[in-house]
Amino acid sequence: MNRYTYPSFPFVCTYPIYQYRPHSFYFTRDFPPVDTSTFKRSLKIMPKALADVSLFVEKMNGQKDLPYKMKEAAQQSNKNEVQRLIKSTGVQSDVDVSFNPDNIRILFLFNRDDFDCCHITLAIKW
Fold it and tell me: pTM of this prediction?
């Protein structure tokens, strides 16, 4: 009787032998060399971007009628007026806004010298 035969069965049972080779299934991919020039360029612009967003928040907190005007324009679905009010705070970057009855999302777009470095999104509940 060989090792694959069971005495209670009249036939021979054979099982395939699986060998687990832990390193035979790993594939390596070749990645390009790491280039941090774009990342560094974006990081140099980031303090200016954060200052721009901070200026907007400070102006909104400092002026009593500006938040009222902004929400009133949003209730009338006047997106251009909302963007104009945001720009009136002294923001230098391009902005895109979307709003609903619950919140406003302001996307600050920072493009310097045809280089789209970063975007900052403020989502503010109102």
Answer: 0.67
Percent of residues, the chain, with pLDDT higher than 70? 78
Strand partners, 5: 12
Burial class (CB in 10 A: 0-12, 13-18, 19+), 106: buried
Domain boundaries, the chain: 47-125
- The residue ranking higher by pLDDT, 82 or 28, is 82
CA-closest candidate to residue 56, choices 97, 85, 76: 85
Q: Of 54, 50, 100, which Cα lies nearest the Cα of 77?
A: 100
Q: Please state, in angstroms and rounded to a whole number, the distance separating the CA atoms of residues 1 and 88.
A: 93
Cβ-based neighbours of 17, under 8 Å, separated by 6 or more: none
Residue 42's identity, in one-letter code, is S
pLDDT band for 115, please (50, 70, 90 cuts): confident
